Amino acid sequence: MSQDKAPQQFDAIIVGAGFAGLYMLHRMRQLGLKARVLEAGSGAGGTWFWNRYPGARCDIESMQYSYQFDDGLQQEWEWSERYAAQPELLRYVAHVIERFQLASDIQYNTRVERAHFDDSAARWLVETNSGERFSAQFCVMATGCLSSTNMPKFEGMADFKGAIYHTGQWPQDGVDFSALRVGVIGTGSSAIQSIPIIAEQAAHLHVFQRTPNYSVPAQNGPMDPQVAREIKANYAEYRALGKSQLLAYDLKMNHQLAANATPEEIRAECEFRWQTGGLYFYGAFADMLVSQEANDVIAQFVRDKIRAKVRDPKVADLLSPTTVFGCKRICADTGYFETFNRDNVTLVDVSKTPIERLTTAGLSVAGKIYELDAIVFATGFDAMTGSLERIDIRGRQGLPLADKWQAGPRTYLGLQTAGFPNLFTISGPGSPSVLTCMITSIEQHVDFIADAIVHLRTHGQQCMEPLLEAEDAWVEHVNEVAGGTLLNSCNSWYLGANVPGKPRVFMPYLGFPAYVEKCRQVAANGYEGFKLDVA
Ligand code: NA7
Asked: For residue 307, what is the enclosing H or E element?
């Protein structure tokens, strides 16, 4: 690191001003710590700041996908729709910043490039793209799970004369596709949300699909004031109900096994899920993600629904996934499959003949050039580890995090990794994170970190890091839990399978209640599995 300027001194540096970084800042301040949030974007919101593509919307209902740490906040804030769209989420973020007066400790347009642990001082030295340097006892990576874009490197990218966009780095001023020939690469959640809107604007839309995805109508609509009133009247209980469930939100869980249900019961339950919308399908049957037979029946129900929506049977076939239902995160859409009935939309199958290259005029598949004015890469993220590994993070004796994680991420509880004292990851690999309602998981992590810091301070200790054996055992446990399900069976971003060359490791931990209980026990036993040191 350059040594010309003395680093600014803080108790904690928090990287990222998304939901995690904002709440972490709030808690640090409550503890009387001097903290600074460093944020690469020109505004707060994290994932929701960057993902401004048309149709970007949360797939968990707003009454659940929101902070619960402050009752005044959750009582007073009014959501306008069942599922918040990206602009409303940013308005909510702005309100939180205002309400808790967080702005003065957030530094925007500041990308953290390096974070090195100084063994002798037992402090983190953090350096930004502008060469600013910070020294802090604690470094909290609130860098998000879906903030590092996955941009395939096709030949000829520089030759293409039209515009190139990535859904995860959408221009702040928006994009007008009117009268343009547009290509969308990918059919994940971002594509599924944006395609219906782009199709309405574009002269023609080509969708380049490698793998079809299951999608269930979100059944979005204006927030029903009666529903909001009822939830708010008993918000604490509603939140507790959410936290008692596998994915940390109320899934209207049906605990019945599909294996024990009659075909009529299965059909009725699936129809109820379809009408309720989107991710509620995860609550359909207790064996949906563990029994292939159960999954097959449910998947067939969804495929039949797709076929009923799409007029051209060949297109319907191409749009019908054959993978395990729910293995990749189920998408929640508004009019996605119907969009392929439009005359100005063409589905191009690139599963057997991949995209070859970009040309000056467009994109070439199987020797055919598709002429385009704009290409939208809806190709997802280097999820969970990408944003951490893109920072030069070094622990004890200069060990680079990227080296330690060469064969896949290794953490204890997704919170810390051995050899990197006082470096915390919020919703890190090995924590429930992306398999849950993220804000709920974030709050649990932030509270754990805040409590751990209090523990350190009251015991006159300076450093906290996992014991290697605790970390190894946790990594094994995370794998074991995923291995007992069907979640390993497809090329999902949970496994890193969407990024060429990324080690195939199931990264999130399935089971929020079990995880929370484990964290509770760990803390109650004096931070069992962690090494707490004077330096
Ligand atoms: P996803 O779900 O990772 O989807 C990315 C899509 O891009 C997916 O259909 C990929 O096909 C496709 N893709 C990626 N690389 C290529 C190449 N080289 N050629 C063709 N197609 C490609 O990302 P999203 O942004 O949609 O959603 C991420 C999460 O955000 C989502 O799960 C929600 O939680 C919100 P593949 O399936 O790999 O064959």
From this structure: helix 292-309
Numbered ranges of CATH 3.50.50.60 in the chain: 8-148+383-533
Contact 191 CB / ligand 1 (< 6 Å): yes
How far is the centre of ligand 1, averaged over its atoms, from the C-alpha of 307 (Å)? 22
Q: How confident is the model at residue 187 (pLDDT cuts 50, 70, 90)?
A: very high
Which residues, in sequence order, are bridge partners of residue 463? 533
What is the separation, in whole angstroms, between the first and last Cα of the chain?
22
Given a cut of 90, is residue 534 above it in pLDDT? no
Please give the CATH number for the structural domain made up of 8-148+383-533: 3.50.50.60
SS3 19: helix
In eight-state DSSP terms, residue 158 is: T
- pLDDT above 70 (res 2): no
Q: What single DSSP character describes residue 78?
A: -
Please give the distance, rounded to the nearest whole angstrom, from the Cα atom of residue 146 to the centre of ligand 1.
12
Output the CA 467–ligand 1 centroid distance in Å.
36
The DSSP code for 234 is T
Q: Is 186 in the pocket of ligand 1 (CB under 6 A)?
A: yes
Q: With a 6 A CB cut-off, is 55 part of the ligand 1 pocket?
A: no
Determine the atom of ligand 1 nearest the C-alpha atom of 434. Answer: 34
**Which pTM was predicted?**
0.97
64 in contact with ligand 1, CB cutoff 6 A? no
Q: Which residues pair with 363 in a beta bridge?
A: 358, 370
pLDDT digits (tens, 9 = 90+) for 448-496: 999 999 999 999 999 999 999 999 999 999 999 999 999 999 999 999 9
Cα 159 to Cα 364: distance, rounded to the nearest angstrom: 12
- Residue 3's pLDDT band (boundaries 50, 70, 90)? low
Cβ 211 under 6 angstroms from ligand 1: yes
pLDDT number for residue 4: 65
Q: Which atom of ligand 1 is nearest to the CA of 191?
A: 26
pLDDT in tens, 479-488: 999 999 999 9
In 244-291, which residue ranges form alpha helices assigned H by DSSP?
Answer: 263-276
Query: Which is the closest atom of ligand 1 to the Cα of 497?
Result: 38
User: b/e per residue, 222-258, with b = 16+ CB within 10 A?
Assistant: ebeeeebeebbeeeeebbebbbebbbbbbbebbeeeb
Quick one: which of 374, 380, 24, 404 has its CA closest to 201? Answer: 374
Residue nearest to atom 33 of ligand 1 (CA): 189
Helix, strand or coil, per DSSP, at residue 173: coil
CA–CA gap between residue 27 and residue 102 (Å, rounded): 11
Whether 134 lines ligand 1, by a CB cut-off of 6 Å, is no
Q: What is the pLDDT of residue 5?
A: 78
